[in-house]
Amino acid sequence: MSTRSAKQVLDAVVEAGRWAPSVHNTQPWTFALSGEEISLRADVGRKLAVSDAAGRELLISCGAALFTMRTAMRCEGYEPLVRVLPDPDRPALLATIKAGAQVEADEPTRLLGAEIERRRTHRAGFADVPVPDRLIESLVRAAMSEGAMLTPVRSADAVNVLAALTQAAQGVQMQDQRFNLEVIRWARPPGSARTDGVPAEGYPQEAAPTEPHFPQRHYSWRHGWGGAGEQSAAAIGVVAVLTTAGDSREEWIAAGQALQHALLHASAHGVSAAFHTQALEMDLLREFLRQELCAGEYPQMIMRFGVTFDAKEMPRRPVSDVVE
């Protein structure tokens, strides 16, 4: 059982929450401590106004932070008591969390907690190392336990469709200066001291092609930053789609929790994920995917799981920046 003070526990939970993944590493959250309760709030100034006008990706990012905090609290020896969207009059207040009864964290929870600071998003192809089917099945169960569905795409035709739609969306976005400027706003130059966004060493100038090709974001647009990357073709990994039955704000938060549960579990077994949300940022393509490939469920994330031996450090805003 925990022997730490309530303040030490809450500080540790907030520290963990800031390590969650977020679109373009925007880290669009703040935390407020009041007594023995933490409030998770959306930092709407970090919302992607062009590609995420509805705030769907922002809430998925914050949902990932919420699951991270829940995991950290269990690792600290307390059952988390969570309320999601507790106040309709305060839309930026996404959740509250406080410590409930003391519990002993089980081995799966400790395994997830150990990956909170180690997990990394990958932005290139993968090594030619297979991902075990049993691991993918466990990722599916992890997402399901949080109220979402993670579906590995086994059909080659369906993978080709997802790749083609990602290419199409990327091509359209590249013609729109607003999209390009929004992406490079979060691309960091070499040597930058900023603690958000994607650092130059975190993405390749030119990603190695996969077959079929899933394009990466053009963080290097017009400036040539980024790592050298691999020149030969890279493995595609296992393509998967995360969906929810509905498309409400609550379900976006649930999708983020499901995503982070799967990511931490994958990381514990040496597997990383690359994200491809371009097609989901265009309403017509997202609706096409929902009807034609997702059996009417709402696609919230397209990703690839694979093995990489090239983990990059990713900056995080200091606690003083995110705690109100």
UniProtKB/TrEMBL annotation:
Residues 116-306 form the Nitroreductase domain. Residues 190-215 are annotated as: Disordered. Gene3D superfamilies: NADH Oxidase. GO terms for molecular function: oxidoreductase activity. NCBIfam families: Rv3131_FMN_oxido. This is Nitroreductase domain-containing protein. It comes from Nonomuraea zeae.
